[in-house]
Here is the input.
Amino acid sequence: MKRILLVGPPGSGKGTQAEKVCKYLNIPHISTGGMLRDAVSSGSDLGKKVEGILAKGELVSDDLITSIVGERLGSGECAKGFLLDGFPRTKAQAEALDKILKSYPLTHIIELVVPHDDIVRRLLERAKVQGRVDDTLDVIENRLKVYEAQSKIVVDHYSGERLHKIDGSKTIDEVGEAIRRVLM
Ligand code: AMP
Here is the structure.
């Protein structure tokens, strides 16, 4: 059974690769960004609460996101494995996740590594195609700053043999193949 964590900065291709992996392993894709964006578009209470935070590229509170993820991980759909994308993003979230997964820890931690300039270019490209409100240059720079400041700590939290670093600047297929090799 595979319980996978995919980490990497915004625009590193996490979402694309996560979808591929979840398809061939037939496991749920737990994307916190996706869940929050869905909440915003549905206009739910949660959506109203987080809308402004997402638009600025800031992080929603650790307690809020941890309880959303905890609920999802505790549901039957995750009993046969899962892939986490976008969580944990802070040290506090990583520690909370360790507690949630105490008796069934993560089996694979994969980090996609992509140079800063490539990421800005990719995110601006995505802004043109998808029209995400948080893909403008200012917000992109802010999201990368937030990533640098907080989320690297998450990678450090998982140093050791379970952490696999993959060059995310290659083509989608090449990165996909490298991930597949790690998961075999
Ligand atoms: P993403 O699609 O993963 O880049 O997430 C989009 C936005 O959702 C982020 O910029 C944050 O505002 C919010 N978000 C997603 N995951 C988290 C998390 N684990 N902790 C806090 N905020 C999050």
Observations:
- Residues 10, 32-33, 36, 53-54, 57-60, 65, 86-87, 89, 93, 134, 143 surround adenosine monophosphate (CB under 6 Å).
- Residues 18 and 29 are 7 Å apart (CA to CA).
